[in-house]
Design brief:
704 residues, mainly alpha, Clc chloride channel, three-stranded mixed beta sheet, three-stranded antiparallel beta sheet, ClC, CBS domain, Cl-channel/antiporter, repeat, transmembrane
Length: 704
């Protein structure tokens, strides 16, 4: 069934009926994953799995989410007393608290490492010594990447970074090994914080989804084969269905914690991750996301850089809302025109990003697979990550050298609202780089002014992604950034983030996608300002580059991931800009429709590239280079004529030969009550089951 993943073509009803009226399709071979795993989505993306990928596909087995209705199961149901789900809710709360603490720890470590890294070169920057700045930044970054990539390549069991595609495939029913291993957890966490702090154009969002899923798996199962721990608590949840639900909740809590967006985390799991959903799981996932966001906000309220700052339990809007937009704007219907244009641009650039990233990953996989020695292959992956960092640091350090210091041109109307804090605000946020510090003075009108200057390229490239996005989203900063700095930043961020995604470090793409979209969105806003000028009246206040930066960010994320509902809610939660809700919805919908014309979403493309079995909600089967809807067939069309069956008692040699010569995940068990009667189907047994074997060299299958 795994090759159903690769069938996305649609035919007219007449063509389907005509094909069915002929010889009859051979669904057995069309659904065989060993035959091929080719897809053609939108006529532009072709992925062909080689022999090694076919062998990899054959190793996957499906998870049994529904229990077999055996006599033992029915007897257990009869003896089971009615009980409330208090323990399930308790576990959901514990998972949310654990993910929230991990999210807080991740952000704190990343911020501390970034501050420490740039503090080391503060004197060199003030003296204009770019060479020593580059050496120090590159040296500290290479040390981080060496550990980050080393943990993934040499410590994690899979040897490659796992993330959202693996979690999605597992929740869809594919049994993927070592995805929720304790070593995978430690390797992903260390690699994530060091990769983001090193200066690579990446974020912690994707790894946080994976880490949240691992916490959901670990706390619900309370056992670890690696550590040899098997605790006798919550044993009723040690089954595939409950394990799946807790992993789903943990993944949603990861998004909720990293973005402080509980509703967005819930909707993200529904729209992108989960394949099995019900109302009860929605409530429990919502509670888990709530606890994750609350825990992260509670710890962030009083701790900064692991130092207690006081005000425990006091939630400041500036800390709780990731990219807080302080000044909402009145909108006009004319704002929908550039919004639609941004949606089209986001869909086109998003499709280009997906296509380019898949090509890079295919080239990367082909190159590494050509290296026969395992140690050299792993070392090559590590060296590639270091090479990406060298390019990134060189650009972020030397490129601002070619940009002069420009004054801060924040509109006076926005300064008047908080003129006592304006100096502190810009000194904290704008990258001064080599610019001389400014001096404040009180004007004749009693307003406090500040002649601070900053480097545009440094503010966009040298800072981390979260702070750069905050610069771009800021309202009332019509002329803070010019065309040159924005175009250069969007070009380098697009290419380097596309190259970084898929390398041997645990990294996320959401922050780079938001940043790239915010950059070209601000360019569109700056074009409007150049045409119509800076509008200070109420009817023209919507012509603000900060507004279109937020819309552009949403459009590019949608163009790459094809998310709609969850993305819209997340954008509102991370900006608090309810006023632009309709604009974000329009941009997201247009970007998704445009992107779907060209190729599949990025995470679906990665699923196919990695040949992870995934069954679409509307699967299609291939027949004579055509794709047919499976609803046109019955169960007999997918049945083999010669079925390998097992009897209640089998010899060990027969079982060994059967498992060695077949790749099935399970076999039917039959029984003859009398020699002259027909065989009766009793049930199925999976290939991973352990039948009772005796010294008579026969195994009893009827006791399982």
């Amino acid at each position: 069934m795994s090759s159903l993943l690769f069938c996305t073509r649609h035919l007219a009803n007449s063509e389907e009926q005509m094909l069915l009226a002929e010889d009859g399709p051979d669904l057995i071979h069309s659904l065989d994953p060993r035959r091929c795993c080719n897809i053609n989505a939108g006529g532009s993306a072709n992925y062909k799995c080689g022999e090694e990928k076919n062998e990899c596909l054959a190793t996957y087995e499906s998870l049994d989410y529904l229990p077999s209705h055996s006599e033992a199961y029915k007897k257990w149901l009869q003896e089971k007393a009615y009980r409330t789900d208090w323990d399930r809710w308790l576990l959901m709360g514990l998972i949310g608290i654990g993910v929230g603490m991990l999210g807080f720890l991740t952000h704190q470590i990343i911020d501390c490492l970034i501050k420490l890294k740039w503090k080391l070169v503060e004197n060199y920057l003030q003296n204009g010594n770019f060479h020593m700045t580059w050496i120090c930044i590159l040296g500290s970054g290479l040390a981080m990447i060496l550990v980050s990539s080393g943990f993934v390549v040499f410590f994690c069991p899979a040897g490659v970074p796992c993330g959202l595609p693996e979690v999605t495939g597992f929740l869809n029913g594919a049994s993927i090994q070592n995805v929720f291993n304790i070593k995978t957890f430690l390797g992903t966490f260390v690699s994530c914080v060091l990769a983001v702090a090193s200066g690579l154009f990446c974020g912690p969002e994707g790894p946080m989804i994976h880490l949240g899923a691992i916490i959901g798996c670990g706390l619900s199962q309370l056992k670890s084969d690696t550590l040899g721990i098997h605790l006798p608590f919550f044993t009723r949840f040690q089954n595939s269905a409950d394990k799946r639900n807790f992993i789903t909740a943990g993944a949603g809590a990861g998004i909720a914690s990293v973005f402080r967006a509980p509703v967005g985390g819930l909707l993200f799991t529904l729209e992108e991750v989960a394949s099995f959903w019900d109302v009860r799981l929605a409530w429990q996932t919502f509670f888990c996301c709530l606890m994750a966001t609350f825990t992260t906000d509670l710890l962030s309220s009083s701790l900064d850089g692991f130092v207690y700052r006081g005000h425990f339990g006091f939630f400041e809007a500036e800390k709780g809302i990731l990219f807080w937009v302080k000044n909402l704007l009145d909108l006009s219907i004319l704002a929908f025109i550039p919004t639609i244009f941004l949606g089209i641009l986001g869909g086109l650039l998003g499709a280009l990003f997906v296509s380019l990233n898949i090509k890079i990953n295919k080239l990367r996989m082909r190159f590494f697979s050509s290296i026969s020695k395992l140690f050299l292959r792993k070392t090559s992956k590590l060296l590639e990550s270091m090479m990406i960092l060298v390019c990134t640091v060189t650009i972020t350090v030397y490129l601002p050298y070619f940009f002069p210091c420009t004054p801060v041109r924040t509109l006076r109307t926005f300064q008047l609202k908080n003129n006592t804090e304006i100096t502190k605000e810009f000194k904290r946020e704008i990258a001064e780089y080599t610019c001389t510090p400014g001096t404040p003075w009180i004007g004749p009108d009693g307003v406090k002014y500040y002649n601070q200057t900053f480097n545009q390229a440094a503010a966009l490239l040298a800072e981390n992604g979260r702070r750069g996005i905050a610069y771009l989203f800021k309202r009332g900063t019509h002329e803070e950034f010019g065309y040159t700095s924005l175009f250069i930043a969007v070009a380098f961020y697009f290419l380097l983030s596309c190259w970084t995604a898929g390398s041997a470090v645990a990294s996320g793409l959401v922050i780079p996608m938001l940043y790239t979209g915010a950059l070209y969105g601000r360019i569109v806003g700056l074009i409007l300002v150049s045409i119509f000028g800076v509008q200070t009246n109420g009817y023209g206040a919507w012509i603000d580059p900060g507004l279109f930066a937020a819309i552009g960010a949403a459009s590019f994320v949608s163009g790459v991931s094809r998310l709609t509902v969850s993305l819209t809610v997340i954008m509102i939660e991370i900006t608090n800009d309810v006023q632009s809700l309709l604009l974000v919805m329009v941009a997201v919908m247009v970007a998704k429709m445009i992107g779907d014309w060209f190729n599949l979403p990025l995470y679906s493309s990665l699923l196919k590239l990695k040949c992870i079995p995934y069954l679409d909600s509307e699967p299609f089967a291939g027949q004579r280079k055509k794709w047919l809807n499976l609803e046109l067939f019955s169960a007999r069309d997918v049945m083999e004529p010669c079925v390998r069956v097992l009897h209640l008692k089998e010899k060990i040699v027969s079982l060994a030969q059967l498992l060695a010569n077949t790749s099935h995940g399970g076999f039917p068990v039959v029984y003859k009550s009398e020699p002259d009667q027909a065989e009766v189907f009793l049930g199925t047994i999976t290939s991973s089951s352990q039948p009772l074997c005796h010294q008579s060299e026969k195994c009893n299958l009827g006791r399982h």
